[in-house]
Design brief:
The chain is mostly helical. It has three domains: 143 residues, Cytochrome c-like domain (Cytochrome Bc1 Complex, Chain D, domain 2); 136 residues, Cytochrome Bc1 Complex, Chain D, domain 2 (Orthogonal Bundle), CATH 1.10.760.10; 44 residues, no CATH class. The strands form three sheets. A two-stranded antiparallel sheet has the order 1-2. The protein has a two-stranded antiparallel ribbon with strand order 3-6. It starts with a helix and ends with a helix. The protein binds heme C (2 copies).
């Protein structure tokens, strides 16, 4: 009896590390969350309710694949955080449909560049690409447009949501992609224990802040400080939106995945980038087109991949562009053991092996977990 009372009395007194002013400023930069939703000047449909509803319907519609066997949701499975839990997607005959890991689509509207190599500069262009990829939906512009025109239910839904069917096949396909983007733009990750902690600390509510577990607090300090993780994993979504090399192998069956180097080539050659004719605002009036205009392809881009955001990772194993890392613990191990010989000689020297103690590894992991529910 006395024991039970004592255990109530000493019940976990919450603790708060002494975060310095500099640490608090850095912490502030990882929020607020959720972000203010902004439209996309290049996609006039992005915030239209009718386009969003049509896009949702399209996302699950197998008729958008040439053989009617795959929909977007076959790989971006809603119940699995809009990815597929596999290293690389395998559809139909079990053959890999890509050499890359299927990314989650949650928070995709926040991303400046899309695809692991930044092949696209808008959510709608990244939604058009799978429709036309032979191993994914497998259409041509002509067969896709013919499918819509020849399927009365689809054609009517298109007209109700987007207006008259364009006579031009490419314009019709772009309409589908813009509706698909409108749907995906509504996929935003929820607030987490980390967000509650950040907000409490910044408003000076120490009691509320102290509910954030101590290991996560220590992991956060390591993430922003010694670990230098936030140099790349910056801002509210924990990505600077750019590309880097962290020493993961980039060999794929039959060759290499050049990452950003090939991604830039594809982006700059694409008629569907922000500089092209399908930008609803026109490139001159789209502030986001400036970044595309100033892109220059350099040798250092070889083997660089997009810095992924870190929210919701608990649901999206395996990790990295090729799905080669099975767990978050193994990601932390990668940064702890880092093989410097694998990093580009001309890349920025941000990373070095952290040689973390087992406790530090657990702390970093506790912090990463606190970014998911
Ligand atoms: C065969 C599996 C598969 C199918 C089907 C598929 N995707 Fe994907 N998706 C992927 C993979 C793999 C990537 C990464 C591609 C890359 O980096 O080159 C990706 C990337 C994306 C991206 C970029 C996300 C980001 O964060 O960069 C978007 C958006 C997207 N897909 C939307 C769609 C839509 C919309 C459809 C249906 C029209 C679709 N996908 C169908 C596997 C698939
Ligand atoms: C130089 C920039 C940079 C730094 C510093 C950095 N990362 Fe990364 N991180 C990346 C890139 C780029 C990838 C994707 C690499 C790939 O796919 O091959 C990545 C991938 C990850 C992933 C996998 C996410 C996913 O969805 O697959 C996690 C988790 C992660 N980093 C956590 C960390 C932690 C923790 C630290 C600090 C110890 C850190 N990163 C430091 C650039 C960086």
């Amino acid at each position: 009896m006395a024991l039970a009372l004592a255990s109530v009395a000493t019940h976990a007194s919450p603790t708060l590390l002494d975060f310095t002013a500099e640490e608090r400023a850095q912490l502030a930069s990882h929020g607020p969350w959720p972000p203010v939703t902004q439209g996309d000047p290049a996609n006039a449909r992005q915030q239209q309710a009718a386009a969003r509803a049509f896009g949702r319907q399209l996302f699950f519609d197998r008729r958008l694949s040439a053989d009617e066997r795959a929909s977007c949701a076959s790989c971006h499975v809603p119940a699995m955080a809009f990815q597929d839990g596999q290293a690389v997607p395998r559809l139909r005959d079990g053959q890999p449909a890509s050499v890359r890991n299927t990314p989650s689509l949650i928070d995709a509207a926040q991303r400046r560049w899309l695809g692991w190599g930044g092949e696209h500069d808008s959510l709608w262009a990244a939604s058009l690409a799978p429709l036309l990829a032979p191993a994914e939906m497998g259409h041509s512009l002509a067969s896709l447009a013919a499918r819509v025109r020849g399927t009365p239910a689809l054609a009517q839904a298109y007209q109700r949501a987007l207006g008259p069917l364009p006579a031009d096949d490419a314009a019709l396909a772009v309409g589908l992609a813009k509706a698909l983007a409108a749907y995906q733009a509504g996929l935003v990750s929820p607030r987490t224990a980390f967000d509650d902690f950040r907000d409490a600390l910044l408003r000076g509510d120490r009691a509320a802040a102290a509910h954030y577990p101590l290991p996560a607090q220590r992991g956060l300090r390591l993430f922003m400080g010694e670990g230098r993780c936030s140099v790349c994993h910056a801002g509210p979504a924990f990505t600077n939106g750019e590309f880097a090399d962290i020493g993961r192998p980039f060999f794929v069956p039959g060759g290499v995945d050049p990452g950003r180097h090939a991604g830039l080539q594809r982006l700059l050659a694409s008629p569907h980038n922000r500089l092209g004719a399908y930008n609803d605002a026109g490139a001159a009036a789209d502030p986001r087109a400036v970044a595309t205009r100033h892109l220059v392809r350099e040798h250092r881009h070889f083997g660089e991949f997009r810095v992924p955001g870190l929210r919701g990772l608990r649901a999206t194993a395996p990790y990295m562009h090729d799905g080669s890392v099975p767990s978050l613990a193994a990601v932390v191990q990668h940064y702890s053991d880092l093989n410097e010989d694998r990093l580009h000689a001309d890349g920025e020297r941000i990373l070095r092996p952290l040689k973390l103690s087992p406790q530090q590894q657990d702390d970093l992991l506790a912090f990463l977990h606190s970014l998911s529910n």
